[in-house]
Every structure is written in C-alpha cells, then in structure tokens.
Amino acid sequence: xxxxxxxxxxxxxxxxxxxxxxxxxxxxxxxxxxxxxxxxxxxxxxxxxxxxxxxxxxxxxxxxxxxxxxxxxxxxxxxxxxxxxxxxxxxxxxxxxxxxxxxxxxxxxxxxxxxxxxx
Amino acid sequence: xxxxxxxxxxxxxxxxxxxxxxxxxxxxxxxxxxxxxxxxxxxxxxxxxxxxxxxxxxxxxxxxxxxxxxxxxxxxxxxxxxxxxxxxxxxxxxxxxxxxxxxxxxxxxxxxxxxxxxxxxxxxxxxxxxxxxxxxxxxxxxxxxxxxxxxxxxxxxxxxxxxxxxxxxxxxxxxxxxxxxxxxxxxxxxxxxxxxxxxxxxxxxxxxxxxxxxxxxxxxxxxxxxxxxxxxxxxxxxxxxxxxxxxxxxxx
Lengths: 119, 252
Fold this sequence. Notes:
The complex is a heterodimer of chains A (119) and B (252). Chain A has 119 residues and is mostly helical. Chain A contains three helices and no strands. Residues 86-91 and 115-119 of chain A have low confidence and may be disordered. Chain A has one domain (6-118). Chain B is built from eight helices and no strands. Chain B has helices at residues 11-43, 57-84, 87-119, 127-147, 152-165, 169-179, 199-231, 236-245. In chain B, α3 (87-119) runs antiparallel to α4 (127-147). Chain B starts with 10 loop residues before the first helix and ends in a 7-residue tail after the last helix. The model of chain B has no long low-confidence stretch (mean pLDDT 88). Chains A and B meet through α2 and α3 of A and α1, α2, α3, α7 and α8 of B.
C-alpha cells in the first residue's frame, strides 16, 4: 500500500474532499442508473401479468353475461311456446340475436388475446 | 457473411442472449472496476506535480473515454436502424443513451472536482469542458426526442437522425485540447508514440477503463431487455416469460 495508515489514505494529501467527491458521485450516479434499469424491468414484467389478469377478468365477465343472457332467453322462449303460436316467431328471433351477441363477444375477447401475435 | 447476425434482429433471441451475457458482464465488470480503483487509489505511486489529487484520473478518464465510445456506439446503432430499418437497432440506441448521459455526467462532475484544486475553479467555459457538456445535452436530446413521439418507429428515426448529426461533436471533443488554448491538459494515452505515464500508473488506469466498459455493457444488456419488453409487451413470449420469472406469479 502506498499510504502509511488509513487517515493519510482518507486525507489524500489534503485533497481528500475532491478525490472522495469524485468517486462518491461516480458510485452514486452508477447506482441510480442501475437501480432504474433493474426496477423498470420488474415493473414491465409486473405490468404484463396485470394485463394478463385484466384480460382474464374481461373474458370471464363476458362469458358470464353471455350465459346469463342465454338462460334468460331460454326461459322466455319456454314460456312463449306454452302461450299462443302467433308469438312464436318473434321470440325465436330474439333468442337467435341473443346467441349471436354472445358469440360476438367471445370472438372479440379472443381477438384481444391474440392481438399481439398478429402485429 | 453477416448471416449469423440476422436472427438477432428477432427480439426474443436478443432478449435471451442479453440474459445469458448479463451475469458475466456484471460480475466481471464489478470485479475489474473494484480491483482497478483500489489499485489506483491506494497502491499507485503519487504524482510529482499534483500529489494525490491526480487519483481522480481513475474515474475521470474511464468515464470520459466511455462517454465518447458510447456516443459512437449509439450513432452506429442509429445508422443501422435508419439504413436497414432494423427496429432492434433503435432499441439498442435507446438502451445506450441513458448510460451515455450518466457516464458523461460523471466525467463532468469528476472533472469539476479535479478542476477546483488544480485550476482554482469548478467550471470554465473552455473548449474541452463545453464540448463535453454539449455531449451530455446530445444524449439527453436523443432521449427526449424519442420520448416525445407516440409512434416508436417514427421516434427511432427522428432520434436516430439527431444521434448521427451529433457525431460531429466527437472529433471536436477529442481535438479541442489541440485546436484551442484550454485549461485542460493534452492527451496522455491516445496519442502518437508512448503514453506519457509510468506503467505503474498506467495499468490501473487501463484496467479501470476496461472495468467501466464492462459495467456499462452490463447496464446496456439490462436496458436492452427493458426496451424489448416495453415494445413487445403484448407478445405471447413476453407473457410466458413474465409468468415464468416474476415473483408475483409464485403465489398463484
């Protein structure tokens, strides 16, 4: 070692302030850069998981509302069948459109999921 | 001839390459930087003129050298991105810019801390110092220009042009100590003939340059991964990767 003891090492021949200021600011700047890089990677990966969970929620909600609609129209048409034959064609049309909208929602969520692949 | 390079235009492969190289660069870089800095600070002989203040050289010169190298690397990435329309290249450019800005900032700070005891001033508007300050502004300019566009392909082009135009500053920095009367001393290592430094001072300096380069490389790899993740956030491979690596998914 060039210096005799730790005090003369810290003193740096009277230039201690400037030498340690340089090395200190260098270490600090590098640390900030590294922390920023490290944590933005973690943030990005968490963001991906959050988006995945959100898509899953959207899909589940869409399916739930679709099945609810289907059962509702099914119940309605059953009642309609029991009643007069004149009303039959109208309810049949209704249940058909309900089924259509459910499948449309399903395909919409499927598209959202595969969106990344096609770009 | 360049065919081996082509798969790396595909971001997924580049990401995994970065992942493989990252620990090597980090560990090796930190080890070399620590070794060289301790050598420079505690074991290298003193300077006959500046006494111990000269030891700032072991952080000032590596960062100053790297600031220019990083700018060149960024400009090359910008050029490749503009000419061959490689989007991975723009990602590399944007991964390099913040590192360059930080390293340039360190070189300016350490330069100021060295200038105060030696020249009697923290700052002087002289050629070398001013051109180095402009270099930092160029790095910051490239980053801000990129961030100001919503369309990232457009952003890459605009920032790329700025990065290439800024290359004009590099020879100005390098030759500023010759072209103008300046407080800053002339070249010590990179000049014709022998470097004007004894080997027991020169070796820790060269090693610290290597160490800083490796550490910057490690940060580059990390930031390159971030750029890729950011751009490809909806791709299935990114989703699969997030599920595999994130600590959040462990609970599920």
